[in-house]
Every structure is written in C-alpha cells, then in structure tokens.
Amino acid sequence: MSHNQQSAPPGGVQGRPGVAAQCVTKVEIRVKCLNLLDKDIMSKSDPMCALYQDVQGQWHEIGRTENIQNCLAPQFAKTFTVDYYFEEVQKLRFSVYDIDNTTPSLGDDDFLGQIECTLGQVVANTPFTKPLLLKSGQKAGKGQITVSAEEISSSKECLLLDFRATDLDKKDFFGKSDPFLEIFKKTSWGSWDLVHRTEYIKNTLHPTWKRFQINMATLCSGDVDKQLKVLCHDYDSDGSHDEIGQFFTTARQLKEAVIKQVEWNCINEKKKAKKRNYKNSGVIYLTSCKVVMEHSFLDFVFGGMQLNFTVGIDFTASNGNPQQPGTLHHIDPRRPNEYEQAIWSVGQVVQDYDSDKLFPALGFGARIPPTMQVSHEFALNFNPNNPFCTGK
Q1: How far apart are CA 30 and CA 141, in angstroms?
Q2: CB of 92 within 8 A of CB of 118?
Q3: Using CA atoms, how far apart are residues 270 and 229, in angstroms rounded to an integer?
Q4: Distance CA 207, CA 200 (A)
Q5: Which of its termini does the chain have fewer beta carbons within 10 Å around, N or C?
C-alpha cells in the first residue's frame, strides 16, 4: 500500500535538519471567582488575581488582573497571554488577594486563596474550575476559581468604539444612575466571557463613555458573527450593581458604525415581564467605530524602521578607583567590567537594526584635557563633531 504522506527526517523538522518540531501557540487566559472570603469588616473584599509560572523551579509573576471593588464573585476583564507548548508541562499558580492599598507588593494584602495546575489542564478542560486553597492546603471557605483558555487568532484588526446612551432608567434613590457597560462574548462551551468593562459615569441618565480600543481576537475570536451581549449597570460602591438593561449584537453590526450611528434598545427583562406597555430602559448608541491595525514590532521592522543605540557612561567617582580590580571602570582583558558587558549585550542585538553601524558614545562626570575641568557631556573619542564608534 502506498501513500503520499511524507514524514520529517530524524532529528528535525522537514526542510530544517536538526531543528526539533514544536507545537506552540499563544492562548488568552480568563479568570473569574465565586464565594471569595470576605476580609473587609465594613464592606466586601476587593479581589485581584495574580498569575505565576514555574520557570526552572522558581515562580515568576506573569501579570495581574484589575482590582474589583467590593465583590466576592468577580469576573475579571483583564486577561493573561501565555505561550502554550504542547510538549512541555507548564506549571501555573493563580493567587487571589484582597487589595486594600496602592503598594505593588502583595505581601501586605489579604490572601484569599490559590490553585496550582498546568496549562495543559486548563486547555484540555476549559472551563477549568477548582476550589481555592489556603497556603496551608485547606479550602478557602467555599471559594472557587474558574479559568478558561482560548487560542489567540493572529488578527491585528482592532475596533475603536464610542458608546453613549440616553434616557436610562433612574436607579439611585437620591440621584440618577451611575452607568457603565460590560461587553461579553459567547464561548464555544455556552458561557459568556467578559471582554471589556467601561468606566462608570456619576449621576447621569445620558452618559457618554470614553472611547476604547479592543482587538477583534479578544472581542469575538475573529468571528464577526459571534454573538455579543452588552449589559448596562448602575454602579454601586458596595458592589451590588443594579442592572439597567441589556442588548445583543455582533462585531459585524458594530462595524456598521463606521458609516453611520447604530442604536439598540436597552431591555430589562424583569421590567418587560411586569409592564404591558414597556418599551425600553433607555437607548444605547454606538456613535462611531473606527477599524485600526495593531501593528507588531516586526511590522515596523519590515516597514524599514531603524534602531539607534547611544552609549552614555558615568565617569563620576562613585564608580570607584579604576586601578582597583572589581570596580566599574577597571580594565581587565580577561574579565569585562559591568559597563563593557552592558554595552556588548545591548549593542550586539541593536546593531542588526542599524544600517550604518555607527553608535554615538558619550561620557559624563570626568575631568577632560587639556583644561582638566569636569565635563557633563563629552565624546569618548574626544571628537565632539563625530562621536560615533563603529559596530562589528
């Protein structure tokens, strides 16, 4: 029996001898939680989730979600992007904290629980739900976390969107409403994933939200007909946001606003069921939609972008006596000092993107002949008209 399928040569990818085949792609990770521990006395916890990845036995922080105020069941809008390697066991840790200050350290924040898993588990079992655990290994109350992963399409297309609304329902007893929007996309497993949350606008029934940009891969996974749900809420500081209404749409319909304004009735299903003559709870408008491209670094390089590298060296006395080994300006042909190492490390990379391979090299804080006065800027080759050095 014969067939036309060809296998790769031993030890490498077909056409690339000696190069091992890798199954790698980028995935977008979303996080939501339920029943978190309540660590605040007068209100609810203000959760944030941090993602860590095990790299050679050390946990390295990948990123953090936004901090959500007064909420024990957060659905985070900010996502994580991780490279997924099929052939590797990629260990992840999701840690949830109650954030009550502005310091970057998490050591002074209340710990709400964590899970450890592999990226393979998340990808193979999306949505992946587990109970949150304390550092002792015990369950963090009834808290649980749900992590979902989705392959990121290569779309560079983004939408710039301008939303406003008129005649929204009044939800506050002593005021009007403090409205904000949340946009969700329908997942392949049937749930709704939050993709964007606007700011809330205080005390108005006719809000105009700030323009925002969203990538088509994030918004609709590149499928312009994927169903989107837009919820309009009245913001409450205690986290008990009141629903004003909602509507459904698609990215294709959003794009209609490139030509003309698009509008939707904001429908509150509970009010609709109770009132015979119910029309809407306001009207939401997409006043403009602009399609833009989100260019990568390589797009700029392929477009002819050049990188220039300028060297600046500190010659002040704080560097130590250059005659003494181990100081920053000591010259040892067998062991480059830290300045030499830094220049070499950066320069050998940048020079490939500089057509003339000429790099200005300057110094400051040294006494320069013939006057031996301290100079705060001088050419290392003592030629102020041509301070360039040649790369390799």
Answers
A1: 22
A2: yes
A3: 17
A4: 9
A5: N
Pull the structure tokens for residue 369: 């002949």
**CB contact at 8 A, 234 and 244:** yes
Q: Are 181 and 168 in contact (CB under 8 A)?
A: no
Model pTM?
Answer: 0.73
* Beta bridge mates, 163: 286
Taking only the tens place, the pLDDT of each residue in 287-306 is: 999 999 988 888 888 888 99
Rounded Cα distance between 268 and 282, Å, is 9
Closest CA to 176 of 246, 239, 240, 244: 244
Count the neighbouring beta carbons within 10 Å of the beta carbon of residue 179.
29
Residues 6+ apart with CB under 8 A from 203: 172, 175, 176, 177, 178
Residues 6+ apart with CB under 8 A from 285: 163, 164, 165, 166, 261, 262, 263
Is 54 buried (19+), middle (13-18) or exposed (0-12) by CB count in 10 A? middle
Rounded Cα distance between 377 and 125, Å, is: 60
- Tokens at 235, concatenated: 């913001």
Q: Which pLDDT band, with edges at 50, 70 and 90, does 19 fall under?
A: very low
- What does the block give as tokens for 118? 């592999």
The overall average pLDDT reported for the chain is: 90
Instruction: Read off the tokens for 76.
Output: 């985070």
Q: Which two tokens stand for residue 270?
A: 């509970």
Residue 44 tokens read as 């609810």
SS (H, E, C) the chain: CCCCCCCCCCCCECCECCCCCCCEEEEEEEEEEECCCCCCCCCCCCEEEEEEEEECCEEEEEEECCCCCCCCCCECCCCEEEEEECCCCCEEEEEEEECCCCCCCCCCCEEEEEEEEEHHHHHHCCCEEEEEECCCCCEEEEEEEEEEEEECCCCCEEEEEEEEEECCCCCCCCCCCCEEEEEEEECCCCCEEEEEECCCCCCCCCCECCCEEEEHHHHHCCCCCCEEEEEEEECCCCCCCEEEEEEEEEHHHHHHHHCCCEEEECECHHHHHHCCCCCCCCEEEEEEEEEEECCCHHHHHHCCCCCCCCEEEECCHHHCCCCCCCCCCCCCCCCCCHHHHHHHHHHHHHHHHCCCCEEEEEEECEEECCCCEEECCEECCCCCCCCEEECC
pLDDT digits (tens, 9 = 90+) for 181-199: 999 999 888 889 999 999 9
| Angstrom distance (rounded) from CA 77 to CA 165 | 22
Tokens, residue 99:
């954030």
